[in-house]
Amino acid sequence: MTTSKTVSPLTTHVLNTADGVPGARMALSLHRLDTRMALWNLITIGTTDLDGRCSDLITGEDFTAGMYKIRFETGQYWESLGQTGLYPYVEIVFTITDQDQKFHLPLLISRFSYSTYRGS
Fold first, then answer.
1. What is the pLDDT of residues 95-106, one digit of tens each?
2. Were both Cys, which of 6, 25, 35, 107 would link to 2 (CB 3.0–4.6 Å)?
3. Could you give the dihedral angle defined by the CA atoms of residues 25, 85, 40 and 94, in that order, rounded to the nearest 10 degrees?
4. Three-state SS at 1
5. What distance in Å separates the CA atoms of residue 66 and residue 6, rounded to the nearest whole number?
């Protein structure tokens, strides 16, 4: 995780649309694809805050062009609420070509569906 003094160029926000609340305390991980080995390398792990946000995923220095994925542990999240969901996890795979831009990738979830988009 980055330090609080550093602004991460990559952020996410989880919204539980079924209950109309933030996806608080959801475990997630950020990975970068090593194209030579065709393997995903773990960069960091984190947890969303009480507002469902995770804003310290990677430093600007480490944010380079390439393919990334954020893995959200949605199954554990639903279990923590005493519910079951269809998806044990959700992975958002995306490509960064201009590492000087900021990227916000929200995840909207219910027990049986999810959606994502590039936010601002």
1. 999 988 999 999
2. 6
3. -90
4. coil
5. 21
